[in-house]
Amino acid sequence: MGSAKIYLQNNTDSYAVLSLYHYSTSHGSTGITQGAVPPGGKIGPVTVDWTTATPADFWYASIAPSGGSRPGVYVSNVPDDVLLPYWKECMLIGEWGLKDDRSSPTFTVDWDNFAINLKSGYCGASMIHTGDYSAIQHVFVLMLENHSYDNMFAALGGAPAANSNSYNGQTYTVSDTSTPTGMPTDPGHEFADVLEQLGGEGATYTAPNYPKPQMSGFAANYAYSTSEKTGTPTADEIGDIMKCLAPAQVPVITQLANHYALCTNWFSSLPGPTWPNRFYVHGASSAYQDGGGYTSLDSSPSNLQIAQWETVSGFTYRNGSIFDALDANGIPWRIYHDDTLDVGGSIPQVTALKGISLAQPLAVKSITAFASDVASGYPYRYTFIEPNYGDVTGNTYKGGSSQHPEDDVSGGENLIARAFNAIASSPLWPYSMLVITYDEHGGFYDSVAPGGTVEPDTQDGPGDNGFVFNQLGVRVPAVIVSPMVKFGVDPTPYDHSSVPATLERLLGFGALTARDAAANDFMHLFDGGDAEARPAPTLATGRTPLPVSPSAVAKRAALMKTPIQEKGNLPGFLHCARKTDIELSAAAPITTIAPEELITPLPAPSVSAPMPSYGEVDSYFRNVMARVQQRRAGHEAALRMRLATPGAKSRDAEV
Fold it and tell me: What are phi and psi of 475, to 5 degrees?
């Protein structure tokens, strides 16, 4: 067995954050990240062990000079390695004091070169610029589902108990007493529902003037809305829409809200449902290419609208998505999704976008890999995390981690804790920001009236309801987590466009639309505080969600035989599955190192047209996701082979 102590030297002309990591199949990953390293200064040592049975070693470096001639963030780059594009292979050789054993070499890194100066020989990699310098080098965003700010945080000092709505002669007040952690029916949150919730019972909309929000129609709308096709509440359940969760019911996000920055004025981007609001976090707009022009989405997608997306390989923004902008500027990004729970609910909504595919194992990964990924060399400046939506095909969303109103909140609490604990225990923590927010309010009461806003692009057509996107939606929960964030309440107005706005200003590129150009960003919250002086809490995981009732199981079984609705969440997720199916079928072999026999494709599934049954869609989702897992298994097999097989050139000529 051999062992060496490795140092990394800053060869730039500025103080910098340096990272050095080593990976081998026999010993896993080890490394170090350290800030404020002066020019000529070193970090380390990183102790690296190996055996003669270790056939390959891989190295990753990054440097972030804060000033000098070329401030920015730079990472090692091996563009011809499709499996490990940021890791340079360079073998450690020798045992018993020979060659690299018991040596203490110093590697060097600057803006352009990463020099691996082993005693046994030299290897080198180029460096690529991945954006402007900032104290925040990694932005993580976790977007959950369908809760208003007051529903989640009123017990921390939100809506006064005197706030109320009335319906049918009954007054319903805000309360945190006997609040259900999962609702008996899904509250309405389509455009017409939100119009009534904000404007009062019977409110109407005539473009372009949205009625002044009175926040008076939540109870009435919950009592009789059937837009979500889950029935209506009993008379005793109507008041649940006004209730707020007690801190003991949501201890994870409550602890983070009490420890970091609680955003008290984060509004959904439009007064409508999940899909258009999620499009705003990815592109500061919900307008999509529909052939010769662009049409905006203000409601859940229909089969006709989805057919228009599919003609251009997915939902296509006029100016591209935030992922397109990152690609254009050479800035690495990654997406994780929760595929540990319901299979149908594991299809991420972000894959509706053109260019985002579950057939890309390096770009869209399982949440199971998240903790180990962030624990070693992690070049990705932006990471988006998507929950599991639970029983999508059963229209209950139970058994997921999105915190959809009909599901228990425990699954989402577990996901928040999982993401936070992974980041907070990683070397990225001192330089990271985690944003936790919700796509829309899900029909729950909120006490703060949303205001007007900027239309993303006046060239885009209005939505189905004539809406021109000049009005914000209902306030949602949001917490910004970082060891450097200013602790306390942040009253700054935000909407989902604040996410791309922050990335644009942090990383140094332009806005996508007028909405993100006008949006507030988060950078004023960072005071350069000492991360070590404010240790991160450890959040408990493993909460057990409530069991699904026998009546719900029976209801689901009956639903499986009926055709799906023409409009709603399920047609949207069906688009994602169909798009994934096409991409998997068209995908090239993962790499020449992974022969075709490593991946035995399942038969391609089919869905009857035009309106399949819930049962058909459920089977289709499971088949598509099985093919995704199979492709990922092929990728892992190829990666293991790559790691276990020394490259043809294990040494470079020293230059």
Answer: -65, 140
Give the helix/strand (H/E) hosting 75: strand 74-77
Q: Per the omega criterion (within 30 degrees of 0), is the bond before 610 cis?
A: yes
* Structure tokens belonging to residue 168: 């049918």
Q: Which tens digit of pLDDT belongs to each residue from 303-345?
A: 888 888 876 689 999 999 999 999 999 999 999 999 999 998 9
Q: Is residue 87 part of a domain?
A: yes
pTM metric for this prediction: 0.93
Judge contact between 14 and 71, C-beta under 8 A: yes
Say whether both 91 and 143 belong to one domain: no
- Percent helix, percent strand, percent coil in the chain, to nearest 5: 30, 20, 50
**Going by C-beta distance under 8 Å and a sequence separation of 6 or more, which residues neighbour residue 83?**
362, 590, 591, 593, 635, 638, 639, 642
Dist. CA 74–CA 10, nearest whole Å: 12
Two tokens at 352? 């509706």
567-603: per-residue pLDDT in tens? 888 889 988 998 998 888 887 655 433 333 333 444 4
- State how beta strands 28-37 and 88-89 pair: unpaired
Same domain? For 315 and 454 the reply is: yes
Residues 321 and 437 in one domain: yes
Cα(220)–Cα(591) distance, integer angstroms: 57
d(C-alpha 218, C-alpha 196), whole Å? 7
- Residue 549 has a CB neighbour count (10 Å cut-off) of 10
Indicate if 209 and 232 belong to the same structural domain.
yes
Say how many C-beta atoms besides its own lie within 10 A of residue 57's C-beta.
Answer: 27
Q: Are residues 157 and 286 part of one domain?
A: yes
Is the pLDDT at 609 greater than 80? The verdict is no
Task: Please report the DSSP string for 363-390 in residue order.
Answer: TEEEGGGHHHHHTS----SEEEEE----
Q: First-to-last CA distance in the chain?
A: 31
Distance from C-alpha of 87 to C-alpha of 377, rounded to nearest angstrom: 8
Residue the block writes with tokens 């069906």: 574
- Tell me: do 82 and 226 sit in the same domain: no
Q: Is 309 helix (H, G, I), strand (E, B) or coil?
A: helix
CB atoms within 10 A of CB 535: 9
Domain holding 33: CATH number?
Answer: 2.60.40.3820
Same domain? For 264 and 408 the reply is yes
Q: Tell whether the model's pLDDT for residue 52 goes beyond 90.
A: no
Domain with 599, as residue range(s), is: 553-644
269/413 same-domain check? yes
| Domain membership flag for residue 640 | yes
In DSSP notation, 637-652 reads HHHHHHHHS--S--S-
DSSP 489-540: EE---B-TTHHHHHHHHHHT---SSHHHHHS--SGGGB----GGGSPPPPPP
For the chain, what is the domain count?
A: 3
CA 454-457-460 angle, 5° bins: 130
Look up the CATH number of the domain holding residue 197: 3.40.720
- Separation between Cα atoms, residue 544 and residue 276, nearest integer Å: 31
92 alpha-carbon distance from chain centroid: 37
